[in-house]
Amino acid sequence: MPAEPPEAAESPSVQAYSALYKEDEAKYNALSSELKKAESSEKPRIRERMEQQRQATAVRMIEMVRQQPSHEDSWNPLLWLSVSVHHGEAHDEAIRTLKKQFIDHPSLWVLLPEFEDSQSAETDAYLVHVEQKARMKKVRGIACFVLAARTQERAQREGNAALLEAARKSYERIIETYPDIRGRSGPLPEMVARRLKELEGAVAVGKPAPELVATDLKGQEFRLSQERGNVVVLSFSGHWCGPCVSMHPHERQLVERLAGQPFRLVEINSDESAEVVRKKMETAGLPWRCVHDGMEGPISKAWLVESWPVFVLIDKQGVIRRRANDAPGERLGEWVNEALGELE
Question: Is this model's pTM higher than 0.85 or not?
Fold first, then answer.
């Protein structure tokens, strides 16, 4: 999370950051409250306003940094720009400033994991630079891990075997070079082990999908093995989850467009109550099959789902082809079209 403003401002620049931070939080929280109360049809517009609010604040934050790019008081605005926005010119400029002026900042190791979600074209080169140039071994090790994790995420989304192998080799190097380094989530070797389980385990991209047997919300049995010959998307989702709900229009369009085609979309739902989910799906008219699993359910555990949403695409031969540990938006349809168009 971005640094909260200190209780007692120490300088005019800290005062300015504190005021802008509080202003942004108040506006963003108000929009969040509006989002919770809104009808489904209104939510996309409110989310767009939330994004616009954050980008407007980002412009003002980067102006603070420009006024004193190497001063310690710029650290908090840079931290905010790295965590609260993941794309845009202000985010890009924050990366460039960190690269130029803050490579040896004592708290950089805490910040680096936030770049795993960055959408900037500058991020990978920045992480390489940090590993090559930072004086602190801890910073170098964490930069290497974040870059490997980003490579893995991209490889899984693209179904790219070469990138999957590159990620695996990077993890091996981390274990050899940084075995004594501890990140925010634990020792790097343990963090690598969790990543390798997803990269090389039973539900890894490129492997045959394991059997999945469950009862859907209509009381009918679902067996993944019986879907051979169909392209299948497993949507690990939840109605409590904003990014999950934001995918509903894309999923609806996909299911309706491909009616009668060899395609199936199955939601593995993480809400607490199956009955509540059933009513929500009926009210919203969501036209896909749904299996209730809960947040600690056996299906989610077997498929290594620890955050939501996750989308897994399985081809006609039953092989896992892509995995997105976030909301892929319109790209989900592109992936399905590609899989449907492949020769038997």
Answer: yes
